[in-house]
Amino acid sequence: PVIRREDYTAPAFWIDTVDLTFDLDPAKTRVLNRMKLRRNPDVATQALRLDGEELNLARVLVNGQGTSFKLDGGHLVLENLPDGHEPFELEIFTTCCPAKNSKLMGLYVSNDSFFTQCEAEGFRRITYFLDRPDVMASYSVTLRADKARYPVLLSNGNLVDQGALDDGRHFAKWVDPHRKPSYLFALVAGQLVAREQRITSRAGKEHLLQVFVRPGDLDKTEHAMNSLMHSVAWDEARFGLSLDLERFMIVATSDFNMGAMENKGLNIFNTKYVLANAATATDTDYANIESVVGHEYFHNWTGNRVTCRDWFQLSLKEGLTVFRDQEFSQDLAGEPSARAVKRIEDVRVLRTAQFPEDAGPMAHPVRPDQYIEINNFYTVTVYEKGAEVVRMMQTLVGREGFTKGMSLYFERHDGHAVTCDDFAQAIADANPGSALAVLLPQFKRWYSQAGTPRLQASGHYDAAARTYTLTLAQSCPPTPGQPHKEPFVIPMGLGLLAPDGRELPLQLATEAAPVPGHRTFVVTQASETLTFQNIDAEPVPSILRGFSAPVILDGGYTDAQLLTLLAHDSDPFNRWEAGQRLALNRAIKYIAEDNQGTRTLALDEAFIEAMRGVLRHPTLDAAFKELVLTLPAETYIAEQLDVVDPQRIHAVREAMREQLAHALADDWQWAYETHRDTGGYQPDPVSSGRRALAGLALTQLCLVARQSGDTVWPGKAYQRFKDAGNMTDRFNALSALVSSGHSLAAQALPRFHALFKDEALVLDKWFALQAGAPDRGGNVLPAVRQLMAHPDFNLRNPNRARSVIFSYCNANPGAFHRTDAAGYVFWSERVIELDALNPQVAARLARALDRWKKLAEPYRHAAREAIARVAAKTDLSNDVREVVTRALAE
Ligand code: ARG
Ligand code: ZN
């Protein structure tokens, strides 16, 4: 059943209050749901249709009396409700089985504790309800459970009562002072301990912050708590938004489908985004925790106080909240260069994950028009591209203007369920006369048109007139259901560099004097030109600075221009981008050259010298150097090609990596020796950048050793692996051995496992490293099958399933795409196997073959067959069905 955005109608009933009583039992939990409802006067009188899924219904009472009802395909239908618009009471008693809930939606058990996940449509698995975000109610919740087994009982809002019951049971009563949609409901019950922190807000209010984890994990909660305190302070300082609750709780669970969930006052997190100490977590983990804690906290305003009218508006809260967490991490990073590093990392995610989505069978607008299963639309498009759309708004109205727009948004919509249009309108209305306000209808095409626009730039220098003309042409390829696209509003950050790298003042032909400072031009036409005057020599254009719009820039750059940008651009993003383009151009050339092996591939001196220049640069940050010296990902390279041979791409990229390793061997040694020691562990941007560069250097040095047979560097890597004082250095050293295929890896891996056998998140890394290792003669797939037979493997645990299966199928293209199709066979088996347990996780895995149509033979044919094999199953979930049907379409 396809759900369409245009079919939205307001609910026929409102639910004003909900009073829930849970008797928690893993095998049979009893849920008493007492609601006050009334008819929506704006909608024609009709029956009440409540959503429900996998519930056992025991009793229905209306105003305390028995009533007739029907069960109709997952709906509880009540036809004989009181007439008129007076409120009435509805009491529903159901039971469910949390222990058997392997989908991890609704109420489930993990490690003998109870957790919930209700977004998007999980609440209907707890009780019958109008499970849609525009129905907002006041909740009070009583939890009853065995006291010894479940000493901690949590729900949204404030704890108003608690006490003992008979038979060793106890209860807790929670009242949420804020109205909310059902997807923000949560409860937790189990043996948990909390790190606590009292804070006073700017407004002088006291709050209690708590981070709940299993006993034994308390020493891994400091960073999450610090991140939470930073989040509270940041939202007050940047947007004037304060915490609106007496207490704010985070609870970690090791069984979770996604990253985390912003339930009102009771955020539930995947342990991966909470638990960290220097011994078990890497710098990347620390950074992810900071941004996910921020993200969920920021949802309290952008998502909870103002929520979505319907799920097509998901980006209203997700795009905006990703934008906010990105800004938060940038602000915490502080230094401009550290901010730029964060920006580059964010763009890298967008371009390696979202651009392919936008070009594939699952392409959809930031505000989708239809879906079969909403869980399939928690995507990089809705999240990351959505964040870019919000970022462009900020660019068009300025940072202060954007803050004003946010204020107007809350003034207008606080406490309501609204649309993406409402958001854009508020930002525009707060900034009359801004480019956003003037161009609003056209700007909103970013919400309605799928696909990544291409921006083609060509420059012409007129020496006699001393002018430089930049011609910009935009286009956007067709996507499913959208054959034709209208031009977008593209903010374009621009600079012109003189041949010696100096930044030139920009003065349009229509301007009397140059306008100093950074400039953003707004491209709106299919084709347009910008002419600059008083230019003495042909400049090098630095286009789309800071990645000012989510487009593919076809800059027509020559190598010489790219080398100038890499050496001199004052915009760090474009400086990095120049290095990536130099590498990409070479990769594409080698891939096209049909020399069977890659032995003859030879990187040119100019490129190597440029890379050496960055690596040895006296003032650039280590973190930035690491980003420049890392070659574009295989999936990113693949997106630039019409026909993709994943093994060829892998071989070429590996050969380039090896060449860089050899050619810069002395420089890598220097880099390693100068950056290897970062002192006591701190996850700050400077020391994590140093660790990243040292890690890359070590990997490169081990690669050199692999060819030469030298054992010194692998030996050093092994030593570092054994002695490292933190997980980042330890894991980087292990990964250097594994990725260079050195025999010492065979000693290091079991040692690592023995050291961390009780640390689930570290074991995930151990599994992922092996499943993601570079393929050598097809060795990875057998290794993956063995990993799945390992006693620590567990398909039901999403983190563990992802660490093996996704690391292979979704993140190791060189090993997954095999000429014998065995990778695809493995994939189809796992999709089917997982689908029976957890459709959401299965559907993510199903997307590993999204881009099958681009594959060269024999991959293409074999991939199609594997997808068809999955599609042939008759009992697939909606989740997987939607993905494979779209993959096979037309
Ligand atoms: N709203 C959550 C977040 O972005 C994600 C929850 C997604 N859950 C799901 N079942 N699709 O932080
Ligand atoms: Zn979110």
TrEMBL record:
Cofactor(s) required, per the database record: Zn(2+)
Q: Could you tell me which residue ranges the Peptidase M1 alanyl aminopeptidase Ig-like fold domain spans?
A: 451-554
> CDD domains under this entry?
M1_APN
User: What keywords are assigned to this protein?
Assistant: Aminopeptidase, Hydrolase, Metal-binding, Metalloprotease, Protease, Zinc
Database matches in Gene3D superfamilies: 2.60.40.1840, 3.30.2010.30, Neutral Protease Domain 2 (1.10.390.10), Peptidase M1, alanyl aminopeptidase, C-terminal domain (1.25.50.10), tricorn interacting facor f3 domain (2.60.40.1730)
Q: Which parts of the sequence belong to the Peptidase M1 alanyl aminopeptidase C-terminal domain?
A: 559-889
Q: Which residues form the Peptidase M1 membrane alanine aminopeptidase domain?
A: 224-431
Specify the Aminopeptidase N-like N-terminal domain's residue ranges. 23-184
Q: Which NCBIfam families match?
A: pepN_proteo (TIGR02414)
Xref: Pfam families: DUF3458 (PF11940), DUF3458_C (PF17432), Peptidase_M1 (PF01433), Peptidase_M1_N (PF17900)
Under which name does UniProt file this protein? Aminopeptidase N
Against InterPro entries, the record matches this protein to: Aminopeptidase_N-like_N, Aminopeptidase_N-like_N_sf, PepN_Ig-like_sf, Peptidase_M1, Peptidase_M1_dom, Peptidase_M1_pepN, Peptidase_M1_pepN_C, Peptidase_M1_pepN_C_sf
Q: Which family does it belong to?
A: Belongs to the peptidase M1 family.
Instruction: Give the GO terms filed under biological process for this record.
Output: proteolysis
Q: Which reaction does it catalyse?
A: Release of an N-terminal amino acid, Xaa-|-Yaa- from a peptide, amide or arylamide. Xaa is preferably Ala, but may be most amino acids including Pro (slow action). When a terminal hydrophobic residue is followed by a prolyl residue, the two may be released as an intact Xaa-Pro dipeptide
Q: Where are the transmembrane segments?
A: none
List GO molecular-function terms, semicolon-separated. Answer: alanyl aminopeptidase activity; metallopeptidase activity; zinc ion binding
Q: What is its EC number?
A: 3.4.11.2
